[in-house]
Design brief:
With 163 residues, the protein is an alpha+beta fold. It has one domain (4-159): Roll (ph1033 like fold). The chain has six helices and six strands. The protein has helices spanning 11-14, 16-22, 33-41, 113-117, 141-150, 155-159, and strands spanning 4-9, 25-26, 48-53, 60-73, 97-112, 136-138. The two termini are 18 Å apart. 31% of the residues are buried. The protein binds a DNA duplex (12 and 12 nucleotides) through loops.
DNA sequence: GCCAACGTTGGC
DNA sequence: GCCAACGTTGGC
């Protein structure tokens, strides 16, 4: 069973529509060890991702993406001209890791953070926990499915299951 | 723009 | 290894 994830992006920086336009992207710029470790150790090709828009009103899940390349060095850490440059990164020890993702489908209806917060079904989901800032989070299967439903998608169809 | 929560840095 | 200072995240 592939794992389920949630990845945050500010739509002004890189929205789900940008991912759809590009067809695929490097998830560069992650500079948090917990998030890095998940990309390095746990994310696998085929894993599905809830694409979450943060720092927008309202914050919401916008679409579904899929991991299409597993963890490898984030070259922006080595690039002095990059906003994500890290002087402590070296080619021998690149320090930061990224994965590639590709779009699967946009939600028919975006699922707002508030709707997730107000639904007891999502109790315990990291996204709604106080102080949770991680830009990459694991998502339980039942939470994942419920988000897709609320987003107006056919879950069985999307996951390739018999109805 | 505010600020709570949290992570990182670096002096000691 | 402690912890104060500082930076970032991200909802509101």
């Amino acid at each position: 069973m592939p794992a389920r994830w949630l990845m945050k992006s500010e739509p002004d920086v890189y929205a789900f529509a940008d991912l759809v336009r590009d067809g695929r992207t490097h998830w560069d710029g992650v500079r948090n060890y917990q998030a890095r470790n998940m990309m390095r150790d746990a994310m696998a090709i085929g894993d599905l991702v809830l694409y979450y828009h943060s720092n927008t009103n309202p914050p919401h899940v916008a679409g579904v993406a899929r991991v299409c390349k597993e963890g490898y060095p984030d070259h922006t850490a080595l690039d002095p001209s990059s906003h994500y440059h890290d002087p402590k990164a070296t080619p021998e020890n690149p320090r930061w890791i990224m994965v590639d993702i590709e779009p699967v489908v946009e939600l028919v209806q975006p699922v707002a953070l508030n709707d997730i917060k107000n639904d007891p079904y999502f109790e315990g989901m990291p996204l709604v926990q106080r102080g949770q800032r991680l830009s990459i989070q694991t998502v339980d299967e039942h939470h994942f499915r419920r988000i897709l439903e609320l987003g107006g998608l056919d879950v069985h169809d999307l996951l390739g299951e018999d109805a």
